[in-house]
């Protein structure tokens, strides 16, 4: 009986030992797997950033391999200045004392209110939408000037010249003086059909006090959403050559209006940026050629 019992005990012990080995092997395998996974993870974490850096450093400085791990040293790409297509170039036309409108320019016009004011047909819908949105806010904006024809602008200017001559000024001086009061034909944005003077119905004065009205405050904040900009801002007179006019809104299209609004520019500054961008792009395109020539 004893020997049989001990044989059974022996078998049980052997089985237990085998089970133990299996468990140990299993634990070891799992541990090994975890280690491999951990190593793989660490390797991928280390490899990625240097891969980026090396490509940057090769361009900049070949000696800095592995030292410069700060990605902040890279200059951020300059934001692109939006430029409208050829067909939409009417939107962003620059009209001022040095950039004259093409003589005889007449846009396709539509009448925008009961007073008979006209606006460029391509932008009239946005003008109406802006005024409607203001009205829905309980405001009463009112157009007091919009499109002006070459003839009208010329008549206004000539009248002003005569008025100046009547004060005793010779013709040329009278012309110069008149230019400070009435825009010389070809230099008025109102001739584009894209500008509107908008005032509060309750306060129709064309002076700085206009900015205090709820209508102007709303328009200044929201006009870009409808493709408009306040054309002659307070702090840009030196650049625009025109006094602060918190009533003169100009259509430039949605994309450009948003860009001008977000960057606090006037239209002249926008065009300056476009020119600089064109120059940069032309230089980049010509770079290999310049090296050959140099
Ligand atoms: Zn105006």
Strand content: 5-15%
Structure ligands: zinc ion
CATH architecture designation of the largest domain: 2-Layer Sandwich
Write down the overall mean pLDDT. Answer: 85
Major sheet, described briefly? 4 strands, antiparallel
What's the total helix number? 8
Strand order of the largest sheet: 3-4-6-5
N→C terminal distance? 109 Å
- Report the top-level CATH class of the largest domain: Alpha Beta
Helical content class:
40-55%
Total of domains: 2
Key structural traits:
8 helices; elongated; two-stranded antiparallel ribbon; 4-stranded antiparallel beta sheet; 8% strand; 294 residues; alpha+beta; single chain; 6 strands; 2 domains; binds zinc ion; Muramoyl-pentapeptide Carboxypeptidase, domain 2
């Amino acid at each position: 009986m004893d020997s049989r019992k001990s044989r059974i005990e022996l078998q049980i012990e052997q089985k237990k030992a085998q089970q133990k080995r299996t468990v140990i092997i299993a634990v070891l395998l799992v541990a090994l797997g975890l280690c491999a996974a951990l190593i793989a993870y660490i390797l991928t974490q280390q490899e990625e950033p240097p891969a980026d850096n090396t490509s940057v450093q090769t361009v900049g400085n070949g000696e800095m391999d592995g030292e410069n791990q700060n990605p902040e040293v890279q200059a951020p790409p300059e934001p692109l200045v939006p430029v409208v297509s050829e067909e939409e170039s009417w939107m962003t036309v620059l009209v001022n004392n040095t950039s004259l409108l093409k003589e005889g320019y007449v846009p396709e016009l539509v009448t925008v209110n009961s007073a008979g004011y006209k606006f460029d047909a391509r932008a009239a819908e946005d003008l109406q939408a802006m005024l409607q949105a203001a009205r829905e806010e309980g405001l009463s904006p009112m157009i007091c000037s919009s499109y002006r024809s070459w003839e009208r602008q010329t008549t206004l200017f000539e009248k002003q010249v005569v008025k100046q001559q009547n004060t005793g000024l010779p013709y040329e001086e009278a012309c110069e003086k008149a230019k400070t009061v009435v825009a010389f034909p070809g230099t008025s944005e109102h001739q584009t059909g894209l500008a509107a003077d908008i005032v509060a119905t309750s306060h129709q004065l064309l002076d700085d006090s206009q900015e205090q009205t709820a209508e102007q405050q709303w328009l200044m904040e929201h006009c870009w959403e409808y493709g408009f900009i306040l054309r002659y801002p307070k702090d840009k007179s030196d650049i625009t050559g025109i006094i602060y006019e918190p009533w003169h809104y100009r259509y430039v299209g949605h994309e450009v209006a948003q860009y001008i609004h977000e960057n606090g520019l006037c239209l002249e500054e926008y065009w300056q940026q476009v020119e600089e961008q064109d120059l940069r792009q032309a230089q980049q395109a010509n770079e290999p050629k310049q090296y050959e020539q140099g």
